[in-house]
Amino acid sequence: MTSWLAILVSRLADISVISSPLAHHFTAWRRAVLATLPAVNILLPPRKPRCARADRRGAARIGAAALLVLAALPPCTARADDLTPSVLGQAGQMALQAATQAAGLALPGAARIEVTPGTLDPRLRLQPCERIEPYLPVGVRLWGRTRVGLRCLQGLTLWNVWLPVTVKVFAPGVVVTTSLPAGSVLGLQHLAVAEIDWAADSAAAFVDPARLVGRTLARPLAGGGALRIGDVKARQWFAAGDTVRLIATGPGFSVSGEAQALSPGLEGQTARVRTEGGRIVTGLPVGERRIEVAL
Prior knowledge:
295 residues; 5-stranded antiparallel β-sheet; 5 helices
């Protein structure tokens, strides 16, 4: 080890006495090499194909040599502003079909549905993809502001992203004709039927103004605002201990009898009652001292 160190020190000493012209020659050669490195680097093939849009920003600073390389790069078809109309159309059609099915279950009549695809997160930098497939995520309701999945099925790198989608479902619903404060008791003069966007809120809207007469607003509403279940205070149809009419319904039959309420009968909430035979059942309050049980 000592002998090798001595040789290295002697070689360094020899280099230190290089003449000034020779040192100047090596300095100029070093500068020339460093000046050519950017051009050499840009012409080297990258380890993975990159997006042509991302490289064009640098190419404008480097020159025409880089443009020859960029011509061979694939386009950025997965960027937010590069999704093809066919991909957006497929995603929109898929969302429209799912929203139509959801509207058929939630609304009593026909509805007019509008689907507007959004854009991907502009910060995403995805690898180019030759085949992008839209799909519906499991458990996601296509209602209001929602999303559709986009996945790359054919490309160097497979990826999966979410495309924002806005679904509007227009159908008749009850609205207030004027601004009303919380605690207002509703009358027919306060109510009208107009086309509303049912998907603007997760709560269901009312369709029959007569069902709202005498109800109390739980929160203030602006004129023209749609009335939804959460906007009015729940009615109490009976109290615990009251004798109620129990209606049991099943496929093709209905029977009724008396029962004793074990809990308050609030609209939209289940209540428990004890039958004359001592059996405890759970049902849904549907009117003044009335409860229904499905068998």
